[in-house]
Specification:
- It is a single chain.
- The protein is of the alpha/beta class.
- The chain folds into three domains: 171 residues, Rossmann fold (3-Layer(aba) Sandwich), CATH 3.40.50.720; 250 residues, N-(1-d-carboxylethyl)-l-norvaline Dehydrogenase, domain 2, CATH 1.10.1040; 31 residues, Up-down Bundle (Single alpha-helices involved in coiled-coils or other helix-helix interfaces).
- It is 55% helix and 9% strand.
- A seven-stranded mixed beta sheet has the order 3-2-1-4-5-6-7, sandwiched between helices. It has a two-stranded antiparallel sheet with strand order 8-9.
- Helix 8 crosses helix 11, helix 8 packs across helix 12 and helix 14 packs across helix 18.
- The mean pLDDT is 95.
């Protein structure tokens, strides 16, 4: 008793795999679950050399772990987290550490940090990305909380995290809910890139008659280029998979009504609250919402037709064109998400180091991609960089590819195929690079109907006009 290095509450797929990962790295670990079968199977799944204990008793579980205790919760976000915390509190002591490893909303984490800190207990919100395989063999982990208390967690987390060039894909991110906030934005970027891939697939398939084989080859070739990323990689694998029942490509038999768990929506909602423009993420969330109205979409399809560009013959360079446009859009999507993190860090006093964020996203996580090394270098060169679009090296590449982006967006418009994220991304880029915007007219309109006043460009002060 009292000799185990770490404990996890919740022995579902993620919790069990993460404990086994820790045991592989010679840490003694304990697991707690109300399901006796899950607690027992944890020990059965471990090798003889591993020191793993499963239990259904909270008091026994707490007593197993060495002080100061380090305990992670891997339970569904929301009320289940509070319920587990309340069940553990009678057995915890001052200095103990509780880590929430789920996708909790960052404001819930702020509340729990305050509540537990008042009791002398350190509370961490930590995003984990990589799914069950990542948990077992190396995830990307995003912890935020008390920096001094992190030293108790650091050796374990660095050992089990994914590695890129020998560097662990985990680091202390910042105060309070910094970890959950970074994971939330990670998921928002994930939404946007998934939608970007889906739009690419759609316009090549419907607009240019690419076969499933040809589409698979496109994404596979892209994954061996500057577009290398986990989401492009799995897209190539998905497009190759045949259905066991029909022999058809499985993806063509899957419903087009998409679901979500809310993290993309949270990203958009908070971005609006802190005035961080992320239109690509906003539109990715919107497209999932539109997908749910299948019956209405089918009716609308019978009412509206488009006789624009129906020529689906391919230009010789169509794949190269889309490749450049995809790269352009992908960089802009990351730029929006990283800019939101920059703004949020100041708003919530997180103290984020965006070079470190880019570093830990290079491996293990769902949005890992080759370009993250470029982002890391950009922030290394300028720690105060407010937006990746202001990095000179990235700007040179984007300038070379923006014509392709414009051609691809026009293609979608001409063919009547929705390209919401492509279009929103280009609009964001054009707005961000505009030294002058027409919002002077909006200021005048606000003053006209509401006497909201305005500023002038030729003199100091706040003005109102009787229009």
């Amino acid at each position: 008793m009292g000799n185990f290095d770490f404990g996890i509450v919740g022995l579902g797929v993620m919790g069990r795999n993460l404990l086994l990962n820790m045991a592989d790295h010679n840490f003694s670990v304990a697991g707690l679950d109300l399901d006796a079968e899950k607690a027992a199977s944890l020990e059965n799944e471990a090798d003889e050399k591993h020191e793993i204990k499963g239990t259904t008793d909270a008091k026994e579980f707490i007593q197993l772990i060495k002080k100061p205790r380090a305990i992670m919760l891997l339970v569904p976000a929301g009320k289940p987290v509070d319920s587990v915390i309340n069940s553990l509190l009678p057995h915890l002591e001052e200095g103990d550490i509780v880590v929430d490893g789920g996708n909790s909303y960052f404001e819930d984490t702020n509340r729990r940090v305050a509540d537990l800190n008042a009791k002398g207990i350190n509370y961490f919100g930590m995003g984990i990305s990589g799914g069950e395989k990542g948990a077992r063999f190396g995830p990307s982990m995003m912890p935020g909380g008390n920096e001094n208390a992190y030293e108790r967690l650091r050796p374990i987390f660095e050992a089990v995290a994914a590695k890129v060039d020998g560097e662990p894909c985990v680091t202390y991110l910042g105060r309070s809910s910094a970890g959950n906030y970074v994971k939330m934005v990670h998921n928002g970027i994930e939404y946007a890139i998934m939608q970007l891939i889906a739009e690419t697939y759609d316009v090549l398939k419907r607009g240019f008659n690419f076969s499933d084989n040809e589409l698979q080859e496109v994404f596979e070739s892209w994954n061996n280029s500057e577009l290398q990323s986990y989401l492009v990689e799995i897209t190539a694998a998905i497009l190759k998979k045949e259905d066991d029942l029909t022999g058809k490509r499985l993806v063509s038999l899957i419903s087009d009504t998409a679901k979500s768990k809310g993290t993309g929506k949270w990203t958009s909602q908070n971005a609006m609250e802190i005035q961080a423009p992320v239109p690509s993420i906003d539109l990715a969330v919107t497209m999932r919402d539109i997908s749910k109205y299948k019956e209405e979409r089918v009716k609308a399809a019978s009412l509206y037709s488009w006789d624009g560009d129906t020529n689906n013959s391919r230009q010789q360079n169509v794949v190269a064109l889309f490749k450049d446009a995809f790269y352009f859009a992908m960089i802009n999507i990351y730029a929006q998400g990283m800019a939101q993190l920059s703004i949020a860090s100041k708003e919530f006093d997180y103290g984020l180091n965006l070079e470190e964020v880019a570093k830990i996203w290079r491996g293990g996580c769902i949005i890992r991609a080759a370009v993250l090394e470029d982002f890391r270098n950009a922030y290394k060169n300028n720690k105060e960089l407010p937006n990746l679009l202001l990095d000179k090296d990235l700007s040179k590449r984007l300038n070379l590819k923006q014509r392709a982006m414009r051609e691809v967006v026009k293609t979608g418009i001409d063919k009547g195929i929705p390209m919401s994220v492509y279009s929103a991304t280009l609009s964001y880029f054009d707005a961000y690079r505009s030294a002058t915007l027409p919002t002077n007219l909006i200021q005048a309109q606000r003053d006209y109907f509401g006497a909201h006043k305005y500023e002038r460009i030729d003199r100091e002060g706040i003005f109102h006009t009787e229009w």
